[in-house]
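Journal club prep, shared notes

We agreed each person brings one worked example of a sequence with its structure written out as tokens. Mine is Major facilitator superfamily (MFS) profile domain-containing protein. I'm keeping it raw so we can talk through how to read the token line rather than staring at a rendered picture. Sequence first:
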Amino acid sequence: MAVGLAVTSGSGQYDGRITSFVILSCGIAAMGGLIFGYDIGISGGVTSMEPFLRKFFPKVYVKMKEDSKVSNYCKFDCQLLTSFTSSLYIAGLVASIFASPVTRYFGRKLSILVGGAAFLSGSALNGAASNIYMLLFGRILLGIGVGFANQSVPLYLSEMAPPRYRGAINNGFQLCVGIGVLAANFINFGTEKIEGGWGWRISLSLAAVPALILTIGSFFLPETPNSLIQRNNDHQKAKVVLQRIRGTTNVQVELDDLINASSISKTYRPQLVMAIAIPFFQQVTGINVISFYAPVLFRTLGLSESVALIMSALIAGVVGTVSTFISMLVVDKFGRRAMFIFGGVQMFVSQITVGGIMATQLGDHGSLAKGYAYSVLSMICIYVSGFAWSWGPLGWLVPSEIFPLEIRSAGQSIVVAVNFLFTFIVAQTFLAMLCHFKSGIFFFFGGWVAVMTVFVYLLLPETKMVPIELMDKVWKEHWFWKRIVEVDEKSKMGSA
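Then the structure, token by token:
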């Protein structure tokens, strides 16, 4: 039964509504974001829990508790510890490459199923881990799950959504990431207090809950009309599905655009640049400094273990989730470019402020004065908010909507692979960078934020309310990309 908002035809729009069928299907698929966010929050929290460190990383525990000569910035500098976090992302990078042909030739829902099942297995193994090898192998399975889910879920959401509300629906993926981070941080705060030192097992095992929902729910998901046309050229079945998800029988115009998008050859250079640049920039915002290592960072500021965990929950979870929800409400009104730019300015100012405070007020030993510590926490809140309503959700939305159908799966795999590659690099090197750069780490990432904001201002065209099947026109109308597109089209005509 159809409910909700009408999507009228005209100006590139199609007839139809946001139906309950679309909401339910996209809600289940967006669990792929929940497992991603839960892992981000959990991994950062458990690596600050003393029982976890004692069992798997005893050298770090001894350095943190007993070595007073070690700098505040270097207490957690351990390659094995960072491997616990970063191993997921190198596994996700490899998995995303294999996910591309699965998504293209077997459909979006099978990739979602594989992602949920792999993540479910990894969470069970991590919760039962008795040695570092079980722990790392579990992380690899989690990475396979996240690799498949992140490759297929944003595509699924963009292809199921009506064009007018595609931004809001696709941003549901990042909203679920935020909810996952929020849940993980509060769970860490609770399990850290369990006597006996086994609370970390609960934290790691509970990742199975959203993974189970995603795995079971994927059996009931409909395949997208785009995928049906791409895989089987089944126009009639695609039309039936399109009528069901749009809540109207008047879908011929949209169906014709889908068919044309599947058969027409286009130039891809602008899209490929964005597929590499956007996920790269998303990772060098420095968000994973906060997401992975917020408890570690807050302990560097002199906060206790419990206070560090609750502050992580409030900042990374509550602030991030609320800001992403706001992004869902306004992204299709204000557009992608404006949100990228203003979010970038917000992140830049907050990072430079945090770096300045830590450079002048936090030495190698001791802690920040209470007033300065609260100022740092406030700036981190502003930073997380800026990311959560701009580069966080838009970093997944924009790449998922700019590619033509015939290479959409491959394009999304590039996005995920680049994302995971630089997530791995940042996760693997951050603690060493923190030790060597000290407060300069915030100036380092702040510089990248400035670069990416200028990049968006100059080179990213606006894509709001443009039907996904007609996206090629935004490149032909852009001041810079239109010259490249014209040259490529003339070259193809000359070689035909």
